[in-house]
Amino acid sequence: MAPTAYVQPIADSTSVFKADLFKGKVLFCTGGGSGICRGMTEAMMRHGAKATIVGRKLDRLQQTAKELTAATGQECLPTQADVRQPATLKEAVAKTIEKFGRIDFVICGAAGNFLAPISGVSENAFKTVLEIDTMGTYNTIKATIEHVRASKGAYIHVSATLHYNGQYLFSYHPSSPISLHRKKLTISDLDPSCSTGTPYQVHVSAAKAGVDALSAVLAVEEGPHGVRSNVIAPGPIAGTEGMDRLTPKNTGADHVYHGHPTGRQGDVKDIANATIFLFSPAASYITGQVLPVDGGSEHLRSQFFPYPQSVLDPQSVAQFIKAKM
Fold first, then answer.
1. Confidence of residue 64 (pLDDT cuts 50, 70, 90)
2. 50, 208, 269, 324: which one is catalytic?
């Protein structure tokens, strides 16, 4: 009888780290109104931090701030800004200083993404993603660095695993057990057997590579000033907008997922836990690093090698691709 796959449980940061770990500290988070960055912000607040969440949709930010405060008992300031516009970020920083008096931690998490082949991405669409992800990170650093220096704080930049070992998002092979039982291809059919590049993600891969480089340089330049900078690179995280759009319904984070050594998909709590650690004194000797939080999938090499079917036949993944002409 074959052994049952062991599924690594999802831990809650409050069961591992002290509840008042970040008491008296202030977090500034771009993209904190929803998704992964909201989860990161909530975790910091659960451990005592006050927070400013930044985004373009003020109504969403205000609702999120109310919910986070109700859940954690900590103050949360919703501030409208566009990371592509430095002046709005500077205003958000000024409001944070006026409200809380300091900034200790910064999460650069604003991002934009869609699926499209190189031939289908317009110059404007490519530029927009770089402006949000790469330039947005740069602008956020510029707007906050004075205050993070003063507090000898730290940065976390949210990247991705798309440009590391080239995850193949839309695997299809006639003999694949997955393909035999499913007509529609989804991100759950991830096959990490490719070693360079992720199809339909040229814009995001380029933008996130820039984010990684920015973090490394920031760590080197600001280290002598007491500032640390690291990257968290999430793998597939269940329950997020992107995963919900690309996975079958009724597929949760708790199901056995043989694509990962941990036996499950990622959860926002996994990213939150990494955030708490990297911002904590326990990580004081860690800077300039990229931490993939992907269940170890980057190290796998599948027995199936479906490439180049879905590149040669775009119609097989047409339902997921947005042409940006």
1. very high
2. 208
208 given a catalytic annotation: yes
How would CATH label the architecture of 17-166+197-299? 3-Layer(aba) Sandwich (3.40)
pLDDT surpassing 90 at residue 248: no
Q: pLDDT per residue over 268-310, tens digit each?
A: 999 999 999 999 999 999 999 999 998 887 776 543 334 555 5
Where exactly are the structural domains of the chain?
Answer: 17-166+197-299
Residue 208, helix vs strand vs coil: helix
Bond from prior residue into 308 cis (ω within 30 degrees of 0): yes
Instruction: For residues 266 and 237, give the distance between their C-alpha atoms in angstroms, rounded to a whole number.
Output: 4
For residues 157 and 215, the answer to whether their CB atoms sit within 8 Å is yes
Give strand pairing partners of 76: 51
Q: Comparing C-alpha atoms, which of 107, 105, 54, 102 is closest to residue 76? A: 54
Taking 70 as the threshold, does the pLDDT of residue 17 lie above it?
yes
Choice among 159, 171, 188, 193 that is catalytic: 159
Strands of the chain (E only): list them: 26-30, 50-55, 76-80, 105-108, 154-158, 228-234, 290-293
Band (3; pLDDT cuts 50, 70, 90): low
Q: What is the pLDDT of residue 79?
A: 98
- 265 and 253 Cβ atoms separated by less than 8 Å: yes
Task: Report the alpha-carbon distance of residue 7 to residue 15 in Å, rounded.
Answer: 19
Bridge-based pairing of strands 50-55 and 76-80 is parallel
- The residues, any chain, with a CB within 8 Å of residue 176's CB and separated by 6 or more, are 189, 304, 306
Contact between 29 and 41 under an 8 Å Cβ cutoff? The reply is yes
Active site residue 159: yes
Confirm if 184 and 319 have CB atoms less than 8 A apart.
yes
User: Residue 305: what pLDDT?
Assistant: 32
